[in-house]
Amino acid sequence: MNAEDIITRIRENYPDAEVRTEGSDCNFSLTVISEAFEGLNLIQRQRPLLALFKDELGSGELHALSILAHAPGNSSS
Asked: Is residue 26 within 8 Å of 63, Cβ to Cβ?
């Protein structure tokens, strides 16, 4: 799985998302900014994003996926 695949999958589920990726091969760090995360705590923001890649994480296609997710204007939460 490459960065473009990751971004595409997130935007299919969060059309308004701004997605930034770092990394390569099977290790990525993501920053995802979406109105959908407004009012949600850290776990509530990360859990649905990780679920999008459950199969890839389980198979090892993705080895590590670090996610920072927040609503616009709330980068510190």
From this structure: yes
Pairing of strands 18-24, 64-70: unpaired
Tens of pLDDT along 36-70? Answer: 999 999 999 999 999 999 999 999 899 999 999 99
Q: Are 42 and 5 a contacting pair, CB within 8 Å?
A: no
Domains in the chain: ranges and CATH: 3-70 (3.30.300.90)
What is the DSSP annotation of the chain?
--HHHHHHHHHHH-TT-EEEEEEETTEEEEEEE-GGGTT--HHHHHHHHHHTTHHHHHHTSS-EEEEEEE-TT-TT-
